[in-house]
């Protein structure tokens, strides 16, 4: 979350809105945009609702994080990543009224480090659930 906020600060301080800094031509740039929606700009302009959903989600995850961390280091890590990403974007929504996105992979939507945290955390959680289910199935049979 801190790295995400620090990068957002640098991007907003060093670039103009919609300005791009090409890192790898045709592949990766830093592009300063404002996203008033959720993933892929869905629900644009509904910042208050998205902030409320974010707060609710963070409270829910905050309640379950200690329980998952006691059961599994990887489960705790996955939820911590999701929480860090959600907090990073919630800070933007509360402070700015929109989320700063900046990672511009030319064949995908522009996103930020908080989004990366969320996606890695969700992917890890899904893998843990799949392997846990397989483990339970193999011990029953």
Structure description:
The protein is α+β, with helices and mostly antiparallel strands. The protein has one domain (2-140). Helices cover 64% and strands 14% of the residues. It contains four helices and three strands, in the order H-E-E-H-H-E-H. The chain has a three-stranded antiparallel beta sheet. A hairpin with a 3-residue loop joins strand 1 and strand 2 (28-35). Helix 2 (47-71) packs antiparallel against helix 3 (73-96) and helix 3 (73-96) packs antiparallel against helix 4. 25% of the residues are buried. The mean pLDDT is 85.
Outline of the structure:
By secondary structure, the protein is α+β, with helices and mostly antiparallel strands. The chain has helices spanning 2-14, 47-71, 73-96, 113-140, and strands at residues 20-24, 28-35, 99-105. A three-stranded antiparallel beta sheet has the order 1-2-3.
Total of helices: 4
Approximate strand percentage: 5-15%
Mean pLDDT: 85
H/E element order:
HEEHHEH
Q: Number of DSSP strands?
A: 3
**Terminal Cα span:** 43 Å
Q: pLDDT below 50 for ≥5 consecutive residues: which ranges? A: none
Helix content: 55-70%
Strand line-up across the major sheet: 1-2-3
Number of domains: 1
